[in-house]
Amino acid sequence: MKISELSRRTGVPVASIKYFRREGLLPAGRATAARLAEYGEEHVQRLRLIKALTTLGGLSIAATRDVLAAVDQAETTDGTLRAISYALPVPVTAASAGDAERDADAEAAAEADVTRLIAAMDWKIPDTSPHIRGLAMALRELRRLDADYRPERLVAYAELAHSIARLDLERAAAFDDSPALAEQAVIVLALSGPMLELLRRLAQEDQVRRRSTLDDNPEEGPGDGPR
Amino acid sequence: MKISELSRRTGVPVASIKYFRREGLLPAGRATAARLAEYGEEHVQRLRLIKALTTLGGLSIAATRDVLAAVDQAETTDGTLRAISYALPVPVTAASAGDAERDADAEAAAEADVTRLIAAMDWKIPDTSPHIRGLAMALRELRRLDADYRPERLVAYAELAHSIARLDLERAAAFDDSPALAEQAVIVLALSGPMLELLRRLAQEDQVRRRSTLDDNPEEGPGDGPR
DNA sequence: CAGTACTGGATAGTGGCAGTATCTTCTTAA
DNA sequence: TTAAGAAGATACTGCCACTATCCAGTACTG
């Protein structure tokens, strides 16, 4: 199909398709002449994925390129999963300069907290993981706001995060050895977050409403509570 | 204190402090003369909160202003919680035009799925909640990618989201009737998400690594699994 | 009490990002 | 053979989050 039809099928303007090609998110079409190319279903699917990663996943164009590169280089199942896991940008990277006084101290303390949490959860994660630094920075910032995010508190969240990750990986593993693995894996790894965030917001809304009406009854009605 | 000291204490450039004032995120200092003002600890704290909401929470300046306005208008505990819950921006708002054919159909079907999910979870949420539309749009997009996010699948995530929301609200409720309630509430409601996302990514990393080494052992070691 | 440094406020400028538009050269179907 | 696209290169736009400059007014300094 021509680029105009690709545009029509996906709803992405021609100029944007060209832009994605320039930025390396979309492979070129099969050239049929010096100045003509043919696009196929894989381009349609790729554009859908690009849109999902950017609008739902909130990824930048640059991050999307990196993630898609990992998808394309998929060799083994594990390698694919790992590559995608690292290609995804770490939310919360840059923090502030702050008053810089004992920044190093606070940073080190926060990182130690994270290390302890990881040990408590029995997670196997290399010290070099960017997520460790990200979480440490987040905790430092929260601590500065007098928010109570001590490790004991965090464990409850960590256990829920663990359950979510298990659900995610189960879903990704279902596509093991399928050619669609890499694509489904990136969907699961990159888009579960935003979806979960929406569910969390809905659940929060419910909790807030319950407080409003029952007010001083922290217990719940029938039919809820996981497990 | 003068603006320069406020800047030094918080690490925020003077020009940015002025910018935040202009945008209504930061109240003006107490005027001591026609062209001089005095800032206090509340300004320091407010700047910390602004930084946390923008860098950790990923909120835009406009969204931060709205959230802070809700914090400042805090009257009752419940009102505060509700105002903040609605002031937070909905991730995933704008979607695509797409091929527009049966967009309306798909949209309606997705929204029905969400309604069914909410009923199944026994959540009390008004039909007008922006999160419902947001989730519906997210599901439609995922469905288009052939990702398996049927309601049955979603329930498992929803239950976990419910648990998280309960943890969050418990923490916020601990500050009930405290003058810091609104502030702590906004921290809990707005910043739990990013923190959880980091934890989820760490947990994902662990799961991926476990697959790599044990490969075909989906069961786990000791010390994990929530409840 | 002059000089300098600093202040709050208004306004203008900057840099990055994600597209969007234009221009030129080519291809092809009517 | 000519008008309607197509492909690619390059330039432009709009938004956002700052950042810099300018101005009149204040305050410490010696």
TrEMBL record, chains A, B:
Residue ranges occupied by any HTH merR-type domain in the UniProt entry:
1-70
Give the keywords, sorted.
DNA-binding, Repressor, Transcription, Transcription regulation
Q: Which GO terms describe its molecular function?
A: DNA binding; DNA-binding transcription factor activity
The ranges of region (Disordered) come to 206-227
Q: Does the keyword Translocase apply?
A: no
InterPro entries, per the entry: DNA-bd_dom_put_sf, MerR-type_HTH_dom, MerR_fam
Q: What is this protein called?
A: MerR family transcriptional regulator
Composition bias type Acidic residues, residue spans: 216-227
Top-rank lineage group of the source organism: Bacteria
Name the SUPFAM superfamilies for this protein.
Putative DNA-binding domain
